[in-house]
Design brief:
single chain, alpha+beta, 9-stranded mixed β-sheet, elongated
């Protein structure tokens, strides 16, 4: 039974803003209109909504997934001593002139002028801004280092042809971390620490990932393997070497180990790590005072995670053509409960309290505020179950025919494993404690 108290306290599907695209049966969608399954499903199922070319509204279910990913990243950044900041989005071009990067500016860079005819950049990255921040407070003592500063903000790129939804958009959410060390050896130690941290993040996300070399002093990219990936990746079957084929020509490196087992596949870049050295700190005069009181140039690193891209690429990797499948850590809600239809035999004869069931599930530490009730009881169980599978809630609990048995049995559908179980309430709670 659904009670008035439930309507106040519980997460209810009927109260979630989720505009679903219903395409009439006689309308055919052109293949070029939807270029990836993640884009199509996120739009059709009310996870995002397109605002204009390459820009999207994140709707409530999409925001919940993003917040989970951001919280996961925040926890790991703080575990390595990184501190959160927020740099301005508008960056004066004189900073890019000081670093020399303005000469390399591509058409993808958004540039705007203010009323005083000053030229600004909608910054896609903040190496100059964060380095300038340090120069305004320098010289800092060597005792202040290592220093690790990160932010999670929107970035902008004037894509000629945005595509794949959130995977290649004009506005995107990114975590960028900038590190400062007193010498190159310390910077390399920081680099290895952050690579280890990124490995842990991707392992928790739960999507198979690949870390590959892209050349430079020390630099890597992290990829999810998908058919729509725009990067060509190569992996040596002998030594395990991986890299971006275009950026570092690493096929020859594989051949040097004597192997002919070379695999080439497509991947979506979801993260990167760069040891910058003094590329920005030297021209911008970012220094520290060593133990003799003399100024030395700082050594930098920059480390990015494409948050909105990780979300979309995860769905691209895990979903079917018709149904979303979420990494359990990122699912908007881990559990969806489907009560009986109003007026049905199950609804009339069952003494199960949906409110108590929801509360008992949320008492599981990993399910706090992660249980959603499909309270649209005017609809059949079958229709609601079909929609729940399409949205991809990892665990769907149905109060069906067996709820009238003694003891009552709940139908648990595990979408991750593709299995169905009939469990008592105690068995249900024990099962979800183990799986969530």
């Amino acid at each position: 039974m659904l009670t008035d108290n439930l309507k106040i306290k519980m997460n209810r599907l009927s109260r979630i803003f989720q505009p679903i695209n219903v395409i009439p049966k006689n309308v055919q969608v052109k293949s070029q209109d939807m270029t990836s399954k993640s884009q199509k499903l996120m739009l059709d199922l009310g996870i995002i909504r397109q605002a204009n070319s390459g820009c999207f509204h994140y709707l409530p279910l999409g925001i919940r997934a993003l917040e989970k990913l951001k919280n996961l990243i925040d926890q790991h950044m703080q575990s390595i001593g990184a501190q959160k900041v927020a740099c301005p989005t508008l960056i004066h071009t004189n900073l890019w002139e000081r670093s020399g990067r303005i000469q390399e500016a591509t058409p993808e860079l958004f540039q705007i002028k203010d009323r005083h005819d000053h030229l600004y950049i909608l910054s896609p990255t903040h190496e100059e801004a964060i380095t300038d921040l340090l120069t305004t407070v320098s010289p800092l003592s060597y005792k202040h280092f290592p220093l690790r500063l990160y932010q999670i903000t929107s970035k902008y790129r004037d894509e000629m042809k945005p595509r794949f939804g959130l995977i290649r958009s004009r506005q995107f959410l990114m975590k960028d971390l900038y590190t400062f060390d007193v010498d190159l050896d310390a910077a390399k130690e920081t680099y290895e620490l952050i690579c280890k941290c990124y490995n842990q993040i991707f392992e928790l996300v739960g999507v198979e990932f690949f870390k590959g070399d892209i050349g430079g002093i020390l630099s890597h990219e992290f990829h999810f393997q998908t058919d729509i990936g725009e990067d060509k990746l190569i992996k040596c079957g002998n030594c395990g070497y991986m890299g971006n084929l275009e950026l570092c020509g690493n096929k020859d490196k594989c051949l040097k180990c004597g192997s002919t087992k070379i695999n080439v596949f497509n991947g979506i870049e979801v993260g990167h790590t760069f040891l910058l050295g003094d590329k920005y700190s030297k021209p911008m005069k970012a220094t520290y005072l060593n133990n003799n009181g003399k100024p030395n140039i700082l050594q930098m690193g920059c480390y990015g995670l494409g948050i909105s891209r990780i979300l979309a690429a995860s769905l691209e990797k895990l979903s079917t053509d018709q149904e979303l499948r979420w990494p359990i850590k990122l699912a908007p809600f881990k559990i969806l409960i489907i009560p009986p239809k109003f007026g049905s035999k199950e609804e009339k004869s069952s003494s199960i309290s949906i409110e108590n069931l929801s509360k008992n599930l949320e008492d599981i530490a990993t399910l706090k505020n992660d249980v959603l009730i499909d309270d649209r009881v005017q609809m059949t169980i079958g229709r609601r179950f079909l929609e729940a599978k399409q949205v991809g809630y990892p665990f769907i609990v149905v109060l069906g025919q067996k709820i009238t048995e003694n003891p009552p049995l709940f139908e648990l559908n595990n979408l991750i494993e593709g299995k169905q179980h009939f469990l008592t309430e105690n068995e249900l709670i024990s099962y979800l404690k183990q799986k969530c």
